[in-house]
Design goal:
alpha/beta
Length: 347
């Protein structure tokens, strides 16, 4: 399935049904009075976040969503039927913006969230509504209220426990393929991965979601190399897994290039938990090269967690996954505590 993380749609709610002008006519009831019913409400357009979706590809083939009109009122005080609402299903992690692409309407972060994006028009009033002691036979009714319409932008930021970042050709896709059932394209050249990939990792009798973010380059925070479209997915990750090609002579510089881009893009990214992984240890020929690199990184990063692995041979991978699962569990506990504190403060 193709990954699409941005889409533009047009939504319109249904118009309300018209009210009816009618009078009761029965045998032996010459002056039955007004009995025109009201019109029904038009359908609203509702967005709902659902599980099982991780792309906006459906909106490539359908961009217009229109709800039905409400039914018209009828005689004998029969009101028009309300129209069904139109439900638009989106992946968790979708942000909905107004036409200006800056005004945020809703941010779907949980399964089952719902919002009415355009409300259906109210039904018109039948002549029964206008009956009074002064005017006992009104011939007045109203049309239904028109529905609203809007152009919306949908932007998807993947929700994952861990975001996998690094320079192009660092081995991120190989790592994702070796620890999940995801099947990303793997080749020996930069920018093999052009779209984010998701995979579920099983570890410590549990699981967590890993997102492979396409290779970042210098200037990514300015949009170079589609940087904005890649970096926005890292914002949702709980933990950053920074993969480094240990066989690259510029490994240390590459690390700080990526760190700089993350920090320039968002101050929140600079505060996220980061785990450093030196990959391709199986092809490093120079003796003590990895140990030297570990010491340099440890000294300049404040003793961050550093692992040495080979995504191909899976050397060191089981220990890394076990460690990551524990960190993900700790992250979720902190999230729950923060949510509880927020609820208590709101009360």
């Amino acid at each position: 399935m193709q990954f699409i993380d941005e889409a533009k749609i047009f939504v319109k709610s249904g118009d309300g049904g018209a009210g009816c002008v009618s009078f009761r006519r029965e045998a032996h009831v010459p002056n039955g009075g007004p009995d025109g019913g009201n019109g029904g409400r038009g359908g609203s357009v509702i967005m709902e976040s659902v599980a099982g979706l991780n792309t906006l590809i459906d909106f490539r083939y359908q961009q217009h969503f229109k709800a039905s009109k409400g039914g018209h009122g009828k005689g004998a005080n029969r009101h028009g039927s309300a129209s069904d609402d139109t439900i638009i299903k989106v992946p968790v992690g979708t942000q909905v913006f107004l036409k200006d692409k800056e005004t945020l309407l809703v941010d779907f972060t949980e399964v089952g969230q719902r919002i009415v994006v355009v409300k259906g028009g109210d039904g018109g009033l039948g002549n029964t509504h206008f009956k009074s002691s002064v005017n006992q036979a009104p011939r007045k009714s109203t049309q239904g209220w028109p529905g609203d319409s809007s152009e919306l932008w949908l932007k998807l930021k993947l929700l994952s426990d861990i975001g996998l970042v690094g320079m192009p050709n660092a081995g991120k896709s190989t790592f994702l393929a070796s620890v999940t059932r995801a099947k990303p394209k793997i080749a020996d050249y930069p920018f093999t991965t052009l779209k984010p990939k998701l995979g579920v990792v099983c570890a410590n009798e549990g699981e967590f979601v890993l997102a492979d973010i396409p290779g970042l380059i210098e200037g990514a925070h300015l949009g170079h190399g589609l940087g904005h479209r890649f970096l926005k997915h890292v914002e949702r990750c709980g933990i950053i897994l920074h993969l480094i090609d240990a066989d690259n002579n510029e490994a240390l510089d590459n690390y700080f290039t990526i760190r700089s881009e993350l920090e320039k893009y968002s101050s929140k990214l600079a505060l996220k938990k980061e785990v450093i992984v030196l990959n391709k240890c199986d092809i490093v020929q120079e003796e003590n090269k990895i140990e030297k690199l570990k010491k340099q990184l440890s000294k300049k990063t404040g003793n961050k967690d550093i692992f040495v692995i080979s995504a191909v041979s899976k050397e060191g991978v089981p220990d890394l996954l076990s460690y990551l699962k524990n960190k993900v569990d700790e992250f979720h506990v902190l999230e729950e505590q923060e949510d509880e504190s927020f609820i208590r403060a709101a009360q």
